[in-house]
Design a protein that fits this description.
Elements (H helix, E strand, L loop, with lengths): L6 E13 L3 E14 L5 E6 L12 E10 L1 E7 L13 H13 L5 H17 L2 E7 L4 H14 L2 E4 L2 E2 L12 H15 L6 E6 L7 H13 L4 E6 L3 H10 L6 H7 L7 E5 L5 H10 L2 E4 L1 H6 L7 H6 L4 E3 L11 H14 L6 H8 L1 H6 L16 E4 L5 H8 L4 H11 L7 E6 L2 E5 L2
Helix pairs in contact: 2-3, 3-4, 7-8, 11-12, 11-15, 14-15
The structure holds zinc ion.
């Protein structure tokens, strides 16, 4: 299906939307319509029969597939496209044996461009339209990703990875290099309205105090940018962090002391955060990225959604490729459900969908994506619930909408996730139709 705005798309709409009283709710229109103007913005959505008369002259397209908002992957590593299914390692070992050697290759622009292409096509093919992604410490990796994402219409938030210790020379860069590369990269992104800049200290362990200071100083000078990093993922990592930063009260406090805990900070994992760390994040308005397939694959631990919700911290969902194992948002949501069960909770399917769409957008302070509502970008994907025999039976036998949605999380094929087309700003960017 090749869509080019303006048009009205008629089909089965399923999207979390903001609600003044409830915070959010699920919009479900089995016979819905979505009107997209020539700028790629949604100007109207709802039941097709209620479509305003003023739009009736627009071209009409029909789809038999489910229309979901584009998914937001709030934590992913584009250079780790080739680092998946790495056997027998926990976090620090996995970094040393598999990840750092691969990331070292990104000093070569051609190699980085090749992977940026593979990454961009793959996330679009899985219905992801916005990604908060790590790059590497190399300028070339950053440029390769941003030029590719811009060309293909994928919205990415990224930055030069800051790391100047505790890793091989091939992936670390000194403070002088980082300062220059970071300033260049930030200036470069000002030309691309749908790309965003994130200060990206890999994690506290990989940064000296001076490097973290430099990151914090940059954020203070540019308070609208994002901050992304990792926190409290693995007991060995936490112990080493405490040893390296003895004056900090906690892992979270390392970031706080360097001015890196902001309302636009997203910290991945937070598996072992103490109550006072959660409180510190909540006060700052910082969000967390829950990456369940990574946490189970590396054996890192179980995310406590209940504790973060109780602390009023925004929860987002991320694939964390390549520690994570699937690009499919449905697989990520399914794994988040399973992690919840291991903690004695049953996280509702609409809650999981919210975390991967509108909830992520709200946590990231992105006010034009994550939902299929007037005024937002027409970023969406079409899902075929009958794409496999298993998903077809499960969908057709659904007891109600939430039961059907839950079934999709566990029966859509992990590769592709049932996505048949993905659009950003109303234009088809990937399609198998
Ligand atoms: Zn990560």
């Amino acid at each position: 299906m090749q869509l080019k705005p303006p048009y009205i798309l008629r089909g089965h709409i399923l999207s979390p939307i903001a609600d003044a009283d409830l915070g959010w709710r699920l919009l479900h229109e089995p016979e819905g319509a979505l009107a997209v103007d020539h700028n790629g913005l949604i100007v109207w959505s709802g039941s097709a029969k209620d479509c305003p008369m003023t739009l009736l002259g627009w071209p009409i397209q029909d789809t038999s597939h489910l229309i979901f908002p584009g998914f937001i992957d709030s934590h992913i590593h584009y250079p780790q496209y080739h680092v998946r299914a790495a056997f027998g390692a926990d976090l620090l070992d996995w970094l040393e044996r598999y990840t750092f050697p691969e990331e070292a290759r990104f000093h070569a622009l051609d190699y980085a461009r090749g992977v940026a292409h593979e990454f961009t096509e793959t996330v679009l093919a899985h219905g992801v339209t916005t990604a908060l992604t790590f790059s590497t410490s190399h300028t070339e990796a950053f440029l390769a990703l941003t030029e590719t994402a811009h060309r293909r219409g994928l919205s990415v938030i990224t930055g030069i990875t800051a790391m100047d210790r505790n890793a091989p020379d091939t992936v670390t860069r000194d403070l002088g290099y980082f300062r220059e590369a970071n300033a260049m990269a930030f200036a470069h992104l000002q030309h691309f309205p749908r790309l965003g800049y994130a200060i990206t200290p890999r994690f506290a362990l990989s940064c000296t105090e001076d490097l973290l200071d430099s990151c914090g100083t940059f954020v203070a000078a540019h308070p609208d940018i994002w901050v992304q990093s990792h926190v409290n993922e693995n007991p060995d990592e936490i112990a080493m962090t405490q040893a390296l930063f003895p004056s900090a009260d906690s892992y979270v406090d390392v970031y706080a002391r360097h001015g890196l805990l902001t309302p636009k900070t997203v910290l991945a994992h937070s598996l072992f955060s103490q109550d006072h760390e959660l409180e510190q994040m909540a006060i700052a308005g910082t969000s967390v990225a829950h990456c369940p397939t990574s946490n189970t694959f590396l054996g890192s631990g179980l995310f406590r959604a209940d504790r973060h919700l109780h602390a009023d911290i925004g929860i987002t969902l991320g694939s964390d490729i390549g520690g994570g194992t699937s690009y499919s948002p449905f697989a990520t949501m399914a794994e988040a459900y399973k992690v919840g069960r291991l903690n004695g909770q049953s996280i509702a399917p609409d809650q999981l969908l919210y975390w991967h769409t509108l909830g992520s957008a709200q946590a990231l302070k992105l006010d034009r994506v994550g939902t299929l509502t007037a005024g937002y970008w027409a970023d969406f994907c079409l899902i075929d619930p009958t794409c496999s025999p298993l998903s077809e039976v499960r969908w057709n036998d659904r007891k109600d909408l939430l039961d059907g949605l839950f079934g999709l999380m566990f029966t859509l094929p992990e590769s592709g996730g049932g996505v048949v087309a993905t659009m950003t700003a109303g234009q088809t960017r990937w399609s198998q139709l």
